[in-house]
Amino acid sequence: MKDTEADSLIEIAHALADAARTATLSHFRTATLGVENKAGTGFDPVTRADRASEAAMRAILADRRPEDGVLGEELDGTSSRSGLTWVLDPIDGTRGFVCGTPTWGVLVALSDADGPILGIIDQPYIGERLLGGFGRAEFSGPHGQRRLATSAPRPLSQASVFSTFPEVGTPEERRAFAALAGQAQMVRYGMDCYAYALVAMGHVDLVVEAGLHAYDIQAPIAVIEAAGGIVTDWKGGPAHDGGRVVAAANASIHAEALAILSAAA
Protein backbone atom coordinates (compact mmCIF):
# COMPACT_ATOMS: atom_id res chain seq x y z
CA MET A 1 0.00 0.00 0.00
CA LYS A 2 1.33 3.44 -0.94
CA ASP A 3 2.13 5.89 1.84
CA THR A 4 -0.44 8.33 0.54
CA GLU A 5 -3.20 5.73 0.73
CA ALA A 6 -2.10 4.64 4.21
CA ASP A 7 -2.10 8.26 5.37
CA SER A 8 -5.60 8.73 3.99
CA LEU A 9 -6.89 5.63 5.77
CA ILE A 10 -5.30 6.74 9.03
CA GLU A 11 -6.93 10.16 8.67
CA ILE A 12 -10.31 8.51 8.12
CA ALA A 13 -9.82 6.26 11.15
CA HIS A 14 -9.15 9.36 13.27
CA ALA A 15 -12.26 11.01 11.82
CA LEU A 16 -14.34 7.99 12.83
CA ALA A 17 -12.96 8.06 16.37
CA ASP A 18 -13.55 11.82 16.59
CA ALA A 19 -17.18 11.40 15.54
CA ALA A 20 -17.66 8.62 18.07
CA ARG A 21 -16.17 10.80 20.81
CA THR A 22 -18.75 13.48 20.18
CA ALA A 23 -21.63 11.02 20.04
CA THR A 24 -20.69 9.11 23.18
CA LEU A 25 -19.75 12.08 25.35
CA SER A 26 -23.08 13.78 24.63
CA HIS A 27 -24.73 10.97 26.66
CA PHE A 28 -22.04 9.82 29.11
CA ARG A 29 -22.99 10.38 32.77
CA THR A 30 -26.30 11.97 31.79
CA ALA A 31 -29.95 11.01 32.11
CA THR A 32 -30.24 10.49 28.34
CA LEU A 33 -28.73 7.00 28.14
CA GLY A 34 -31.91 5.19 27.14
CA VAL A 35 -30.61 1.81 28.32
CA GLU A 36 -32.17 -1.29 26.76
CA ASN A 37 -31.39 -4.95 27.34
CA LYS A 38 -30.73 -6.79 24.07
CA ALA A 39 -30.11 -10.17 25.73
CA GLY A 40 -32.70 -12.94 25.86
CA THR A 41 -31.34 -13.94 29.24
CA GLY A 42 -29.02 -11.99 31.51
CA PHE A 43 -28.10 -8.38 30.84
CA ASP A 44 -26.46 -7.09 27.66
CA PRO A 45 -27.14 -3.35 27.54
CA VAL A 46 -27.30 -1.05 24.54
CA THR A 47 -27.79 2.71 24.83
CA ARG A 48 -28.64 5.67 22.63
CA ALA A 49 -24.93 6.47 22.70
CA ASP A 50 -24.00 3.07 21.20
CA ARG A 51 -26.36 3.57 18.31
CA ALA A 52 -25.48 7.24 17.77
CA SER A 53 -21.77 6.46 17.83
CA GLU A 54 -22.01 3.71 15.22
CA ALA A 55 -24.38 5.74 13.04
CA ALA A 56 -21.97 8.70 13.07
CA MET A 57 -19.05 6.51 12.01
CA ARG A 58 -21.03 4.77 9.29
CA ALA A 59 -22.15 8.10 7.86
CA ILE A 60 -18.51 9.09 7.36
CA LEU A 61 -17.70 5.78 5.71
CA ALA A 62 -20.73 5.97 3.42
CA ASP A 63 -19.49 9.35 2.22
CA ARG A 64 -15.74 8.76 2.05
CA ARG A 65 -15.25 4.98 1.63
CA PRO A 66 -18.45 3.63 0.05
CA GLU A 67 -16.67 0.64 -1.52
CA ASP A 68 -15.43 -0.66 1.83
CA GLY A 69 -17.35 -3.12 3.95
CA VAL A 70 -18.54 -2.34 7.47
CA LEU A 71 -18.94 -4.72 10.40
CA GLY A 72 -20.34 -3.14 13.55
CA GLU A 73 -21.92 -4.31 16.77
CA GLU A 74 -25.26 -2.53 16.59
CA LEU A 75 -26.24 -2.32 12.90
CA ASP A 76 -26.28 -4.74 9.97
CA GLY A 77 -23.02 -5.34 8.16
CA THR A 78 -22.32 -4.28 4.58
CA SER A 79 -20.18 -6.26 2.15
CA SER A 80 -16.85 -5.00 0.86
CA ARG A 81 -16.26 -4.24 -2.80
CA SER A 82 -12.71 -2.98 -2.18
CA GLY A 83 -11.22 -5.86 -0.19
CA LEU A 84 -11.21 -3.71 2.97
CA THR A 85 -13.67 -3.78 5.86
CA TRP A 86 -14.05 -1.36 8.77
CA VAL A 87 -14.78 -3.16 12.04
CA LEU A 88 -16.47 -0.91 14.60
CA ASP A 89 -17.37 -1.22 18.25
CA PRO A 90 -19.15 2.06 19.04
CA ILE A 91 -18.82 1.50 22.79
CA ASP A 92 -16.73 -1.40 24.04
CA GLY A 93 -17.74 -1.76 27.66
CA THR A 94 -21.34 -0.55 27.62
CA ARG A 95 -21.87 -1.87 31.15
CA GLY A 96 -19.08 0.39 32.36
CA PHE A 97 -20.47 3.26 30.29
CA VAL A 98 -23.87 2.84 31.94
CA CYS A 99 -22.23 2.82 35.39
CA GLY A 100 -20.22 5.96 34.67
CA THR A 101 -16.75 4.42 34.74
CA PRO A 102 -14.11 5.83 32.34
CA THR A 103 -12.76 2.46 31.20
CA TRP A 104 -15.03 1.91 28.17
CA GLY A 105 -13.78 2.88 24.74
CA VAL A 106 -14.44 3.16 21.02
CA LEU A 107 -12.78 0.58 18.75
CA VAL A 108 -12.05 1.23 15.08
CA ALA A 109 -10.27 -1.35 12.92
CA LEU A 110 -9.57 -1.73 9.24
CA SER A 111 -9.13 -5.28 7.95
CA ASP A 112 -8.26 -7.07 4.76
CA ALA A 113 -8.68 -10.77 4.00
CA ASP A 114 -5.92 -11.69 6.46
CA GLY A 115 -7.12 -9.66 9.43
CA PRO A 116 -6.69 -6.19 10.93
CA ILE A 117 -4.13 -3.85 9.38
CA LEU A 118 -5.01 -0.68 11.32
CA GLY A 119 -6.63 -0.07 14.67
CA ILE A 120 -7.62 2.66 17.11
CA ILE A 121 -8.50 2.28 20.79
CA ASP A 122 -10.03 5.56 21.95
CA GLN A 123 -11.17 6.59 25.44
CA PRO A 124 -13.20 9.74 24.85
CA TYR A 125 -13.71 10.85 28.47
CA ILE A 126 -10.06 10.90 29.47
CA GLY A 127 -8.96 11.88 25.99
CA GLU A 128 -6.54 9.05 25.30
CA ARG A 129 -6.10 7.51 21.86
CA LEU A 130 -3.91 4.64 20.69
CA LEU A 131 -3.27 3.93 17.02
CA GLY A 132 -1.42 1.01 15.48
CA GLY A 133 -0.79 0.01 11.87
CA PHE A 134 1.07 0.94 8.68
CA GLY A 135 4.33 1.19 10.65
CA ARG A 136 2.87 3.45 13.33
CA ALA A 137 2.35 2.80 17.04
CA GLU A 138 1.16 6.06 18.56
CA PHE A 139 -0.33 7.29 21.83
CA SER A 140 -1.86 10.69 22.44
CA GLY A 141 -3.48 12.02 25.58
CA PRO A 142 -3.77 14.96 27.96
CA HIS A 143 -0.07 14.73 28.80
CA GLY A 144 1.23 14.59 25.27
CA GLN A 145 2.20 12.08 22.61
CA ARG A 146 4.63 9.19 22.47
CA ARG A 147 5.35 5.95 20.67
CA LEU A 148 3.66 2.83 22.01
CA ALA A 149 5.83 -0.04 23.25
CA THR A 150 4.84 -3.16 25.16
CA SER A 151 6.75 -4.27 28.27
CA ALA A 152 9.94 -6.32 28.38
CA PRO A 153 9.79 -10.07 29.19
CA ARG A 154 9.32 -11.20 32.76
CA PRO A 155 8.07 -14.50 34.16
CA LEU A 156 4.40 -15.18 34.77
CA SER A 157 5.11 -15.18 38.52
CA GLN A 158 5.88 -11.45 38.21
CA ALA A 159 3.21 -10.63 35.63
CA SER A 160 -0.10 -8.76 35.66
CA VAL A 161 -3.10 -10.46 34.05
CA PHE A 162 -6.37 -8.77 33.14
CA SER A 163 -9.79 -10.06 32.06
CA THR A 164 -13.14 -8.33 31.81
CA PHE A 165 -15.09 -10.87 33.86
CA PRO A 166 -13.99 -13.39 36.52
CA GLU A 167 -16.50 -15.78 34.89
CA VAL A 168 -14.36 -16.41 31.81
CA GLY A 169 -16.30 -18.41 29.23
CA THR A 170 -17.29 -22.04 29.81
CA PRO A 171 -16.44 -24.06 32.95
CA GLU A 172 -13.49 -25.57 31.06
CA GLU A 173 -12.27 -22.12 30.03
CA ARG A 174 -12.67 -20.82 33.58
CA ARG A 175 -10.52 -23.66 34.91
CA ALA A 176 -7.80 -22.87 32.38
CA PHE A 177 -7.93 -19.17 33.25
CA ALA A 178 -7.84 -19.96 36.97
CA ALA A 179 -4.73 -22.08 36.44
CA LEU A 180 -3.05 -19.16 34.68
CA ALA A 181 -4.26 -16.55 37.15
CA GLY A 182 -3.06 -18.66 40.05
CA GLN A 183 0.52 -18.35 38.82
CA ALA A 184 0.45 -14.60 38.14
CA GLN A 185 1.57 -11.90 40.54
CA MET A 186 -1.57 -9.82 40.05
CA VAL A 187 -5.00 -10.33 38.45
CA ARG A 188 -7.46 -7.53 37.76
CA TYR A 189 -10.94 -7.43 36.19
CA GLY A 190 -13.43 -5.12 34.53
CA MET A 191 -11.36 -2.90 32.24
CA ASP A 192 -12.94 -3.90 28.89
CA CYS A 193 -10.88 -2.58 25.96
CA TYR A 194 -8.80 -0.36 28.22
CA ALA A 195 -6.93 -3.46 29.43
CA TYR A 196 -5.69 -4.01 25.87
CA ALA A 197 -4.64 -0.36 25.74
CA LEU A 198 -2.58 -0.91 28.90
CA VAL A 199 -0.78 -3.84 27.23
CA ALA A 200 0.11 -1.62 24.28
CA MET A 201 1.30 1.13 26.65
CA GLY A 202 3.62 -1.26 28.48
CA HIS A 203 1.78 -1.44 31.81
CA VAL A 204 0.11 -4.88 31.64
CA ASP A 205 1.56 -8.24 30.58
CA LEU A 206 -1.49 -10.29 29.57
CA VAL A 207 -5.18 -9.99 28.76
CA VAL A 208 -7.04 -13.31 28.59
CA GLU A 209 -10.68 -13.60 27.52
CA ALA A 210 -13.18 -15.92 25.83
CA GLY A 211 -16.43 -15.47 23.92
CA LEU A 212 -15.33 -12.34 22.07
CA HIS A 213 -16.64 -11.05 18.73
CA ALA A 214 -14.57 -9.69 15.86
CA TYR A 215 -15.52 -6.12 16.74
CA ASP A 216 -14.22 -6.64 20.30
CA ILE A 217 -10.70 -7.62 19.30
CA GLN A 218 -9.66 -6.44 15.84
CA ALA A 219 -8.65 -2.93 16.88
CA PRO A 220 -6.72 -4.20 19.95
CA ILE A 221 -4.89 -6.72 17.74
CA ALA A 222 -3.66 -4.00 15.39
CA VAL A 223 -2.63 -1.67 18.22
CA ILE A 224 -0.89 -4.27 20.38
CA GLU A 225 0.97 -5.89 17.50
CA ALA A 226 2.16 -2.48 16.28
CA ALA A 227 3.49 -1.83 19.79
CA GLY A 228 5.47 -5.10 19.80
CA GLY A 229 3.02 -7.52 21.42
CA ILE A 230 1.27 -10.68 20.28
CA VAL A 231 -2.46 -11.48 20.09
CA THR A 232 -3.68 -15.00 19.27
CA ASP A 233 -6.28 -17.52 20.24
CA TRP A 234 -5.51 -19.97 23.07
CA LYS A 235 -3.81 -22.32 20.61
CA GLY A 236 -1.59 -19.66 19.11
CA GLY A 237 -3.68 -19.20 15.96
CA PRO A 238 -5.40 -16.10 14.52
CA ALA A 239 -7.81 -14.33 16.87
CA HIS A 240 -9.35 -11.71 14.59
CA ASP A 241 -12.68 -13.54 14.43
CA GLY A 242 -12.98 -13.44 18.22
CA GLY A 243 -13.53 -16.39 20.52
CA ARG A 244 -10.75 -17.24 22.98
CA VAL A 245 -8.08 -14.54 23.03
CA VAL A 246 -4.75 -14.00 24.73
CA ALA A 247 -3.02 -10.65 24.25
CA ALA A 248 0.59 -10.68 25.41
CA ALA A 249 3.24 -8.01 25.79
CA ASN A 250 5.96 -10.20 24.32
CA ALA A 251 6.75 -13.67 23.00
CA SER A 252 8.06 -14.97 26.32
CA ILE A 253 4.94 -14.32 28.39
CA HIS A 254 2.79 -15.38 25.45
CA ALA A 255 4.47 -18.80 25.39
CA GLU A 256 3.98 -19.23 29.15
CA ALA A 257 0.30 -18.33 28.85
CA LEU A 258 -0.31 -20.67 25.91
CA ALA A 259 1.28 -23.59 27.72
CA ILE A 260 -1.47 -23.31 30.34
CA LEU A 261 -4.43 -22.11 28.26
CA SER A 262 -3.99 -24.55 25.38
CA ALA A 263 -5.06 -27.38 27.66
CA ALA A 264 -8.60 -26.00 27.35
CA ALA A 265 -8.47 -25.24 23.64
Write the layout of secondary structure elements.
Blueprint: H1 3-25, E1 36-37, E2 45-46, H2 48-64, E3 69-72, E4 85-92, H3 94-99, E5 105-112, E6 115-123, E7 128-133, E8 136-141, E9 144-147, E10 160-163, H4 171-181, E11 186-189, H5 193-201, E12 206-212, H6 214-226, E13 230-232, E14 243-248, H7 251-261
Parallel strand pairs: 3-4, 10-11, 10-12
Antiparallel strand pairs: 1-2, 4-5, 5-6, 6-7, 7-8, 8-9, 12-14, 13-14
Helix pairs in contact: 1-2, 5-6
Major beta sheet summary: 7 strands, mixed
Beta-strand share of residues: 25-35%
Question: Roughly what is the average pLDDT, rounded to an integer?
Answer: 96
Q: Report how far the terminal alpha carbons are from each other.
A: 36 Å
Output the number of helix runs.
7
Summed up, the domain count is 2
CATH topology of the largest domain: Fructose-1,6-Bisphosphatase, Chain A, domain 1
The count of DSSP E runs of length 2 or more, i.e. the number of strands, is 14
Radius of gyration, CA atoms, in whole angstroms: 18 Å
CATH class category label of the largest domain: Alpha Beta
CATH architectural type of the largest domain: 2-Layer Sandwich
Percent of residues in helices:
25-40%
Which residues sit in consecutive blocks of at least 5 with pLDDT less than 50? none
Shape by Cα distribution:
globular
Class from secondary-structure proportions:
alpha+beta
CATH homologous superfamily caption of the largest domain: Fructose-1,6-Bisphosphatase, subunit A, domain 1
Trace the largest sheet across and list its strands.
Answer: 3-4-5-6-7-8-9
EC number: 3.1.3.15
Pfam families: Inositol_P (PF00459)
Cofactor: Mg(2+)
Family: Belongs to the inositol monophosphatase superfamily.
